[in-house]
Amino acid sequence: MALLTPLFAFLYHLPQVYKWLLKPYYVASLFMSVAFLAVRKTPGICDHLASQREDGNSCDFDWREVEILMFLSAIVMMKNRRAMFLMTCKPPLYMGPEYIKYFSDKTIDDELNKDSRVTWIVEFFANWSPECQSFASVYADLSLKYNCSGLKFGKVDIGRYGEVSKRYKVSTSPLSKQLPSLVLFQGGKEVMRRPQVDKKGRAVSWSFTEENIIREFNLNELYQKSKKLNRNKAEKLSPSQFPPVPEEEEPEQPGADAESKKDK
Predict the structure, then answer these.
(1) What does the record list as coiled-coil region(s) (predicted)?
(2) Residue 72, φ and ψ in degrees, nearest 5
(3) Mean pLDDT over all residues of the chain?
(4) Are residues 84 and 106 in the same domain?
């Protein structure tokens, strides 16, 4: 299962991978790599190439080319060792309790602008991201502690809804390291986000711990203000402001009138 999960995630996001790979830089690199292999291995063409092999076989890699390929492979593995380890050793999906509303590309704008008095904290995540999966339990605990009618928690999968990613300027590229991103909305407008993004579009290093989120987003103060909002709503809807309901009179029983006449 550890190997099948990243495979299924890759197949699910294959259309987005195609868009990413169709850039001129990657197309040119792929073309030159294929051209090198074709020239080196095609009979009739490789016979005219120079080679430093002892057997004089110019249709096979010589020791210089083998060293270059090994060196480049080592560099690629070293730069992506963390990503490769996390893809094969992903944390389990969080299935615990939470007070979180999940948005889609059609509902997020309406929910954020529905009530200007409500503060929203929205997590932009992707299911294939190991960092997002590790953060899921922390975010769920925060929603259980601080969720109320004036302070709500939401999530949107920008790996699935690409338009939301562009609209709110959260990159899904692994190189940008913007996943997950927490954004605070008040009155439907963005107030702050973590991690912050520099001019090059890369996220500034920030630790997604519960203590950091409470401190940076000032959740304790937001929660106290939201509780006051709840009290004000309760006072407006208190029963004393509604007119009293008249009590129904009990109907007179005819048997009681007959007994009173007999007594007379």
Answers:
(1) none
(2) -65, -40
(3) 78
(4) no
Cβ atoms of 179 and 135 closer than 8 Å? no
Rounded Cα distance between 29 and 137, Å, is: 41
Beta-strand pair 151-157/119-125: parallel
Q: How far apart are CA 37 and CA 52, in angstroms?
A: 17
Express each pLDDT in 90-122 by its tens digit. 556 788 899 999 999 999 999 999 998 999 999
Task: Tell me the whole-structure pTM to 2 decimals.
Answer: 0.58
| Neighbouring C-alpha atoms within 13 Å toward the C-beta of 152 | 24
Angle among Cα 5, 11, 17 to the nearest 5 degrees reads: 120
Q: Is residue 136 part of a domain?
A: yes
Provide the residue range defining the domain that includes 124: 100-226
Specify the number of domains making up the chain: 2
Q: How far from 261 is each of 131, 252, 254, 256, CA to CA, in Å? A: 88, 15, 11, 9
Consecutive H or E run containing 261? helix 254-263
What is the model's pLDDT at position 3? Answer: 53
How large is the C-alpha radius of gyration of the chain?
32
Examine the domain organization and report whether 75 and 38 are in the same domain.
yes
DSSP state of 197: B
In this structure, are 109 and 142 located in the same domain? yes
Say whether 162 sits in a helix, a strand or coil: helix
Q: What are the tens digits of pLDDT across the range 153-199? A: 999 999 999 999 999 999 998 888 899 999 999 999 999 999 999 88
- Show which of 88, 109, 127 is a domain's final residue: 88
Structure tokens of 43? 């009979």
Compute the distance between CA of residue 122 and CA of residue 108 in angstroms, rounded to an integer: 10
In this structure, the dihedral spanned by the alpha carbons of residues 164, 165, 170 and 171, taken in order and rounded to 10 degrees, is 180
Taking the mean position of all CA atoms in its chain, how far away is CA 29?
Answer: 31
Q: Is residue 192 part of a domain?
A: yes
